[in-house]
Write a structure and sequence with these properties.
The structure is a homodimer.
Chain A: H1 7-20, H2 33-39, H3 44-56, E1 60-63, E2 69-72, H4 77-94, H5 99-120, H6 123-137, H7 143-159, H8 164-176, H9 178-182, H10 188-206, H11 210-235
Antiparallel strand pairs in A: 1-2
Helix pairs in contact in A: 1-3, 2-3, 4-8, 5-7, 5-8, 5-11, 6-7, 6-10, 7-8, 10-11
Chain A binds a DNA duplex through helix 3.
DNA sequence: GAATCGTCAATTGTCTGACATTTGATCTTC
DNA sequence: GAAGATCAAATGTCAGACAATTGACGATTC
């Protein structure tokens, strides 16, 4: 039960700490692999494994050529979105988080940014939401496309809050649930109901009526949970 | 402007897709490095770099020895916390986000889970909060320790909601702000005020009074923002 | 003088082969 | 049957080489 991590993990941690602490500023060039291997007294391939670990976390980027090397990466929200969403999706799929819990979290977070969105939403956000509502009302739409459009609608709502941190945090919560939602078959009746709620939400946001938005989101949360429950019930009795 | 990613990145993506899609189930053993290098027609070190990338994302774990190898990792909430927090902290520290935005996001999310926490908080959560409040009232406490205790207090509040997805999502928002908060010097007067609000919040949670909790959190949010503003103002005029 | 082209050197990416280390499985011995 | 010795498979590390890329620098040409 030796608990000594690999050399490449130690080196990665050493460099990562330097980056996170701000010791290595953004766009700073790290020493070349050859220099690092001398500094840490290991061979180059070990250094490379450490660097690949950091690259996988978007902490550094590498560039070939004479003036190339490894540079401290400027972490963008886009970079972070991807990791956040895959991690969240994996967490949900691997941890048998039930539909109720995931939905509860999602709508709790969404209601948190609803007041801000009611205050700040731009015409652009409203237009996106209206467009998605129109798509959701089309009859031939597959369940997967309906869910994707649902996610896009809610993303627009969240983005309307104009707070990139909120958008980033909620990207995981909203998008990670898509696979779970895809397991639900949306009947024509349920789609109509959801589209109705979406329209009402868009109307309330346009009117900047925060309390109405909150009430409607609560309705939608309850309805979604009920849908999920009915699907679960339909599966259970088969045993 | 060749846009072909490295071989190790391609291989990592290939395996990652297989894991995320569920094609490789949890605890499944991957082929050995030698076998993978044959399958992908690359040398072993290239395969190893790919595996290290996946290990950095906690997607696989490796084990040495005869029955060892790379196994698809069961991603736990604990594992995800770490990545989430470092990523969020980096996003904030890279100056793309100002203190106001971060605080707004943090308290918006926190208020989202306050009603749930008021309903479900256990005696254990309350005890943790009381203990942190006691610590925060101690006179000799450093600013860093005060902030750390503040984070622990709010973590207990969030955990009280009893929803692991919420806890996971908010871990980033709450803990990532700690470095920013550490830049604030807390006077004795501001500490007293904050401890007072914390006590009132704990009282309201104990009484399961959700609306009071919400009001108090709003107060705390406003006060924290004001503190941050005063610090920023104190710095600006120096130029 | 300016633009174009070639060369060069530094750096990362990949390959090959070897050895060290770990660890469960298996065999041996009592 | 239990304890220890041995083995084999796998990852971890090392050493050295070559390929590929790319900016810098100089040479050539108009």
């Amino acid at each position: 039960m030796k608990n000594t991590p690999d050399l490449s993990a130690q080196i990665a941690k050493s460099i990562r700490d330097a980056i996170v602490s701000g010791d290595l500023p953004v766009d700073e060039r790290l020493p070349s692999e050859a220099e690092l291997s001398e500094q840490f007294n290991v061979c180059r391939s070990t250094v490379r494994e450490a660097l690949k670990r950091l690259a996988a976390q978007s902490l550094i980027r590498t560039q070939r050529g004479a003036t190339g090397g490894a540079f401290v990466n400027h972490l963008t929200f886009e970079d972070a979105y991807g990791q956040q969403i895959t991690t969240s999706a994996l967490l949900l799929s691997m941890n048998t988080v039930d539909f109720d819990t995931a939905c509860e979290a999602r709508f709790a977070l969404e209601r948190a940014c609803a007041p801000l969105s009611a205050k700040r939403r731009s015409a652009d956000h409203l237009a996106t939401m209206r467009a998605e509502i129109t798509r959701q009302a089309q009859p031939g739409l597959s369940d997967e496309s309906f869910c994707a459009s649902d996610v896009a609608f809610h993303r627009a709502l969240v983005d309307g809050a104009g707070n990139p941190v909120l958008s980033y945090q909620l990207a995981g919560a909203v998008e990670a649930i898509e696979p779970l939602m895809n397991m639900i078959t949306f009947t024509a009746r349920s789609r109509t109901h959801i589209v109705g709620l979406h329209t009402a939400i868009a109307d309330a946001l346009e009117a900047q009526n925060a309390s109405d938005v909150d009430t409607l989101l609560a309705d939608l949360a309850g309805y979604t949970a009920a849908l999920g429950k009915s699907v679960a019930d339909a599966k259970k009795p088969a045993t």
